[in-house]
Amino acid sequence: MSFERLALPHMQSAYNLARALMSSPTDAEDVVQEAYLNAFKSFASFRGQDVRPWLLAIVRNAAYGMLRARRRAGNVVAIDWPGRDHHEDLPHQVASQEATAEERMIAAIDAAYVWQALAELPAPMREVLVLRELEEMRYQDIADVMSLPMGTVMSRLSRARRELGRAVRRLNEKDERSAV
Amino acid sequence: MPCEFSEHLLGSYLDAELDAASAARVKQHVAACAACAAKLEQWREIGAAVRKAGPAPMPEGLAARVARRIEQARQTAPVPPAVPAPAAWRWMAVPALVRQAAVLLMACGLTALATWWTVATSERGKLVQREQLSAHIRTLMQEMPVQVASADGHVVRPWFAGKVDVAPPVKDLAAQGFPLVGGRVDYLGDRRVAALVYKRRLHVINVFAWPETTSAAPRSAVLQGYNIVTWSSGGIGYSAVSDLNGAELQELQQLLQ
Known about the structure:
B: 21% strand
């Protein structure tokens, strides 16, 4: 099976991860292009079952490589997130219809804040959330992509969820105060 | 009052990573604990919101640009060999008849391989030892011979899972004078193998591990002044390489067996 047939179908996943790590769509595209070239060059050594974790690990390396180079050059790395500009389009209630009182209270956390809050998280938190929630990967695959033990993946995911929840609440409260 | 229930468990439950018994335990707790139920609901909601916003919109023509660059690379660079992939993804795609033929062919191939194997083993053994020694010397030239630095076997062994064909049992032998430095993935004999790094005083010891079906008693060899002890047990082949003296290296071998 050719490299193209195996790897090109995963470009959306590659771009999602690149976009989670890089501040602009242009940088994300550069990362994806570089990653695919690197993947192509090292394809001969690919022995795995599943091309996606292998490919995403290469995307991640390319992204962090570029971020490191930027940092060395003294540029500030901005954090942004796709969808941030049009978060108004998001539905405001995600809770199910037979939500209990308790659930309704929590559901008051506006889904739109999630995007703003995501942008405030550090990159390692963002990438683990993207791999889990957007790519819906198993812990084992995430561990492979991030070259981390499974236990660390779990801690990082817990922390990312906790911090995101906190950031969403903070934004929500700030908004309510300014509304009053 | 915040609940002390493990967030790892809660998260693994949400992500369907738990076995049935643990999942039932979490479910029972969540039913009784409002704080955890709320947390779970919030996490669920965050996940749903991320998914709802969906994939990042890709720049137009990205796929074409990537394909073009790969094509250019293919023309300018030496062609990388097609993957001789044994993997499952190909398997599912072929029709049944072809699959059966493949199984037959594979059986023939395996027989031939087995014959070749017995003939070539002695020659191969030397080659493998040479490779192991090279890998060992490479690590001596690096600042950090490990990718995961931990003296805890329960950290090092799970780290290997999915990275190599077989994750060997990992023991810290600090009490016996062989402290565990950590582990890394190395590439030997055309495959990824687990490498454990131990120390004895100032000597670095690499212990390589790979799947091996036959059991073999330990054999010692000396190559370029380095000692190599090779053995296999429990479906895993091992090779310990070091400039440590042969007697002490054998001592480590016995501790690991």
